[in-house]
Amino acid sequence: MCKATGRAWPGQTSYSIPAPMTVLHYQLHVLYSIVVSLLALLSFCPSYLSLGAAQLLPIAGLNGSTSASSSQLQTYIVHLRKPAHMVSASPSELEVWHRSFLPTPSLDSGEPRMVYSYGRAISGFAAKLTPEEVDAMAAKEGFLLAHPDEPLVFETSWVPYFLRLSTADSGLWNLTNFAKTIVVAVIDSGINPSHSSFVDTYIPSPPSKWKGRCDLRSPNKCNNKIIGARNFDSAGPGAEPLDNNGHGTFVASVVGSNIVPNANVNGLAEGSAAGISAGAHLAIYRADSASGLIASFDEAIRDGADVITVSVSLPEGRFYSNDLAIAALSAAESRLFVSCAAGNGGPHRSSVRNGAPWVLTVGASTIDRALRVFLDLGNGEKFTGESLERTGQVPTQQLNLVFPGDGSNMLRTCSAPLTGVTGMAVVCQSDPASISPQEQGENVRNSMGAAMILMNSQLNGSTLILEDNVLPTVAITHDDSQRILNYVRTAGGRATVTMRAEGTIYSVSPQPTVASISGRGPSRVNGGILKPDVIGPGVNIIGASSQSSNGFVMMSGTSVSAPMLASIGAMLKVTHPAWSPAAIRSAIMTTSNHLNNARAPIVDQTGGPAGAFAIGAGHVHPLRANDPGLVYDIQPEDYIRYLCGLPGYTQREVDAVARRSVDCASEGRISAEELNYPSIAVALSGVRKTVTRTVRNEGPGRSTYMAEVEGMLAEMGVEVNPDVLNFMEEGEEQSFTVTFSIANPMEFRGQVYEGQLKWVATTSLHVVRSPLVVTVP
Questions:
Q1: Is the same domain home to 361 and 226?
Q2: Is 283 helix (H, G, I), strand (E, B) or coil?
Q3: What pLDDT score does 679 carry?
Q4: Do 374 and 363 fall into the same domain?
Q5: SS3 685
Q6: N or C: which end of the chain has fewer CB within 10 A?
Q7: Single residue among 114, 140, 166 that ends a domain in this structure
Q8: Cβ(718)–Cβ(740) under 8 Å?
Q9: For the chain, what is the domain count?
Q10: If we measure between CA atoms, which residue out of 427, 414, 423, 413 comes closest to residue 383?
Q11: What values do phi and psi take at 49, rounded to 5?
């Protein structure tokens, strides 16, 4: 949810005997399947018939027994290799096959073992099992691997103007009619459907392809804005998909909130608010674990969604152990564009999440809006901070300034009761890993402090993340905090401060900057593909509250930036319906900004230039993405060849990710460097390495592009061949090679070189830019 500029909303099978089976075994298998099917049908026939066989259903209870200890039971996600006779099976046939792997249909309590039977997102199911039962299951034909279910990590006004979505008639809002007709699936913590952000004024009816269902009950109803709502979390299938923590409502409003006037937080950043793709339909899938996440993907693909936004993550292991990555590959193969949060583990190296090459991985940046408070120290020095306190809430009288923490870390972070701070402004060190700003504020308030000045750590540098607090709180950068501390210490108890709230200001420079929390590359699991792909607004963004029908809150993180990029992908789906998800990602990446609003390289929280492992290709520029000139496309079979080329993967593990049996010898193998990705990252262990890329002309039919390489240091040679591309028609493809060379690799071991390859059109204004990263291992 972001600020708009006041613009008015416009009007409107059959079985065959598998080879390994004897006829007798097959007959027994079919007999068991029929019995299980009849039991299942008797158990939940009325609701199943009313929903139709195409719906993904949580499995209803069956009678049975098991001697499994309940203390050992947990939900496992089981990956299977489909036999030939199951490749085209219906959902009900798949469910029968999945049940055949279970030791018993239900537990001693009568509770069904099966949790979800998956149709598309993965090949397999989720069920309640013991470790011993999983071990026994591994001997069955078709079993690939299994792992316990795991919880999801939620990576948690002005922005449309900042992104130039609404600039005159050429803005992307106008060009795409606010992304009407597009369905964006939001997989998160649910929805507050009564919020004014989700009214359906001027929103058309759902597209005819939509097959989803709504599990909201009166007075919480679906409409033309929220066209689907399902619950796949541990609360159980009978619960409404209402938001249980505020995260999902916020994310949904960032994607597709209708225009809401007078949106603000504490009277700040006031104006009309709208989602990035304000006309899009929303399909809500509530999930809190990996098993529910897979079910959400499964249903979104089946329902007819166009785009999926995922502001959650799972531990960043190899793809065969990451169910989000597997489900997202299934979505990409079904031509759904998937945008994922890069995680909030920054600025640590290799903290990026969701690094699979078939998704757009989005980092977080700041915007050029600030909620400014001036700090005038008693020695005449002046500083600026930011606060969610509006004018009139910040004390205006001169206050004594105190830092209680020189003798104790507990006092430094205001984590313990304070003494001698009555009526003072208390300086506290921010330490969100151990104590929240709200807890710090409560400690200061309970100690009779009048205000809190929250110092950023060196890790967070200049990134000021604002949260509502119980007393007036002003956040300051790390550099400013050190100067303020020096004053407090030298003043010897006579330090004072006067605070003055200026409120909301715009066009702050330099912006954007990379948020300190934004996940950084390189990825440890994707073979060397540069991640994140891009950055987008993700700090101090306003969105809908789950606690009221009109309230707004402020959040920060890659949870915010990922749905913004999903929305941009939705708008590109309108203007370029034939583009694949890879082409959309390419258009976003190759047109992004690597310079800030001061025309200097984008910086990170330290104030120094942000490298490619922080910004990827750069900061999104939506309007340019709509007309990229050239695109780097990737076909689904290329991802399979890439999986075959990943070192250390067994046949079983490749099959689990591909969700089918893969013959890598016939499919072929390519390295991560050879995947036709819009960024180019290589490891140069010898003196030379050459990679090939292919681009497709999406600009004028007759076009000429010339190659330019910038940024590399002198010892790293880069040669592009050919260095001129001449296109005769739209849709034409041409390939080129990029050769990297270094005279003495041993001399430069451990070095990372960054630059960029630009294809500059001589026949138009297009510039197609790819980041270059060369690591000398």
A1: yes
A2: strand
A3: 98
A4: no
A5: coil
A6: C
A7: 140
A8: yes
A9: 4
A10: 427
A11: -65, -35
**Is 34 inside any structural domain?**
yes
The pLDDT assigned to 661 comes to 94
Q: Which residues contact 184 (CB under 8 A, 6 or more apart)?
A: 255, 256, 277, 280, 281, 282, 283, 305, 306, 307, 308, 309, 566, 567, 570
Q: Are residues 326 and 185 in the same domain?
A: yes
84 has a pLDDT exceeding 90: no
236, amino acid identity: G
In a domain, 656, yes or no: no
C-beta of residue 247 within 8 angstroms of C-beta of residue 526:
no
Domain span holding position 237: 153-367+513-631
575-624: pLDDT as tens digits = 999 999 999 999 999 999 999 999 999 999 999 999 999 999 999 999 99
CA dihedral of 315, 318, 319, 323, whole degrees rounded to 10: -30
Of the candidates 455, 456, 465, the one whose C-alpha atom is nearest the C-alpha of residue 488 is 455
Give the integer Cα–Cα distance in Å for 225 and 216.
13
Rg for the chain, CA atoms, rounded: 28
Residues 519/353, Cβ–Cβ less than 8 Å: yes
For residues 78, 81, 84, 89, the Cα torsion angle rounded to the nearest 10 degrees is 30
Cis-peptide into 10, omega within 30 deg: no
Tokens standing for residue 366: 């700041």
CB proximity list for 203: less than 8 A, separation 6 or greater: 180, 223, 224, 225, 258, 279, 281
State yes or no: pLDDT of 351 exceeds 90: yes
> Using an 8 Å Cβ cutoff, are 536 and 564 in contact?
yes
* pLDDT band (50, 70, 90) for residue 409: confident
Contact 542, 3 (CB under 8 A): yes
Q: Which of 387, 361, 388 is nearest to 374 (CA)?
A: 387
In CATH, what number is assigned to the domain containing residue 475?
3.50.30.30
Query: HEC profile for 597-648?
Result: CCCCECECCCCCECCHHHHCCCECCHHHHCCCCEECCCCHHHHHHHHHHCCC
Query: Where is the domain boundary, 486, 506, 526?
Result: 506
Residue type, 34: I
- In this structure, are residues 353 and 384 in contact, taking their beta carbons and an 8 Å threshold? no
CATH number at residue 762: 2.60.40.2310
Check: CB of residue 101 under 8 Å from CB of residue 269. no
Cα distance between residue 53 and residue 186, in whole Å:
24
The closest alpha carbon to 371, from 158, 516, 548, 564, belongs to 158
Helix boundaries (H) for 257-318: 290-303
For 504, the enclosing helix (H) or strand (E) is strand 496-506
Q: Is residue 639 part of a domain?
A: no
Cis, bond preceding 532 (omega within 30 deg of 0): yes
**How many degrees, rounded to 5, is the angle at CA 463 between CA 460 and CA 465?**
100
Residues 316 and 381 in one domain: no
119: which 2 tokens?
């149709």
pLDDT tens-digit profile of 362-394?
999 999 899 999 999 999 999 999 999 866 688
Domain shared by 302 and 174, yes or no: yes
Pairing type for strands 260-265 and 268-274 reads antiparallel
User: Which pair of tokens denotes residue 467?
Assistant: 């949260």
Across 63-72, 233-242, 306-315, least confident range:
63-72
Distance (Å, rounded) from C-alpha 730 to C-alpha 220? 48
Q: Are 159 and 88 within one domain?
A: no
Strands lying side by side in the sheet with 630-631: 630-631, 688-697, 733-741, 717-721
Q: How far apart are CA 621 and CA 165, in angstroms?
A: 9
Query: Which one, of 413, 187, 409, lies nearest residue 282 by Cα?
Result: 187
Which pLDDT belongs to residue 162?
66
Residue type at position 633:
D
Kindly list the catalytic residues.
188, 247, 559
Phi, psi of 413 (to 5 degrees): -95, 5
Same domain, 194 and 283: yes
Does 145 fall in a domain? no
